[in-house]
# Entry
Amino acid sequence: MSDDAIHQAESKRTRRGIATYLRRIANALGRGEPAPVDEAQTVTADLPPEAELEVELDREGDVASLDIEMEWDDADGDIETDTPVSKARFERYEDADDQWRWRLVHDNGNIIADSGEGYTAKQSVTQGLESVKTNAADAVVVDQSNDDGHEPDEPGSDATFELYEDNEGKWRWRLAHDNGEIIADGGQGYSSKQKAKQGLESVRLNVSGAPIEDPQ
# Structure
């Protein structure tokens, strides 16, 4: 990292994970809000109304690269390095049966995901929500209402979003780990498949940077 670099990260991601990252930035820019540039969503750039945009596609030998760069006068924008901007938070709590659970609560008050099951210990429920943080962004979506049952060829994470219609005609999603465990679900039924997809997409966008709280 150069002396002037504020944040730099490099990792191998699936196309889906890259799309989630770019969508997170695009949504913030479209709303005129600070755009999160790191996965924890604490390093943000608040761009001015106009900025220079440079796109460069190169090939050097066997390696191709796509560079997207935005540049603006530092005085016209604002950069923060420790300001959480995820629009959701994890609430970790003990239920009436002394089971530990978590729920992902959007800033609008809606519960957009929950653990679906109780855990015997606080450490176990924490491991469960951390697994959701790790796997949600890259997880593929399998529509179980399709007759052919086709799964995408592109590998995602160690979990898969399963989209399905329940016995009451409501659309739901659940995040299933490769070990067979359901590590998250939507917690509610949706009136249409599109709304269920929007629900799980909200989880994708917000889960990695969501803080963990223990409400009293």
